[in-house]
Every structure is written in C-alpha cells, then in structure tokens.
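Hi team,

Below is the intake form for SLC26A/SulP transporter domain-containing protein from Clitoria ternatea. Please confirm the fields before the structure is written into the shared record.

FORM ID: S-0412
PROTEIN: SLC26A/SulP transporter domain-containing protein
ORGANISM: Clitoria ternatea
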Amino acid sequence: MSPLTSLRNVVVVVGEGAVARGQGAVVEEASRGAVVALCFLSIVGKERPVHRLGWLIRFISHSVISGFTTTSAIVIGLSQAKYFLG
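The structure came back. Fields below:
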C-alpha cells in the first residue's frame, strides 16, 4: 500500500467520525490538510529518484537519528495530550 493510499484512508476514517459527531468543520480542515499532504508527498516522491541523496545518511550517526526520532515522538505525544485529557 502506498503512502498516498494510506493517507487517503486515514482522512476518510477521520472525516467519517467527525461527520458522525456533527463536526463538519473538522472534515473541511482535514480535507484541506490531506490535499496539501498529498501534493507534498507526490512532489517528494517524484523528486527523490532524481536527487539520489540517500548516501548522505551514512554521515549521520545512529545516536543523532535516534535522538531526532525520540524527540519527534515526545513532541507529537505532548501536543496530542490535550485531546486525550480533555
């Protein structure tokens, strides 16, 4: 399954849940975000083979990649905590 298909499926599920709760504005915002994300993914997907810059990852240490991933997860988790806590 491609990333574009996965993103489309997520937006459909989120949109259906929001409509069921009567939150039409959420659906419109999710749709706009999905369109922007799909455009970005398609541009990046088409440019990636042209640049072939994957070899640069060899110069980034494992600890830097691990720290970036962990920090990203913490930031995303904390930003979503307000929705879980109400």
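SUMMARY LINE: Residues 24-51 form the longest helix (28 residues).

Thanks, M.
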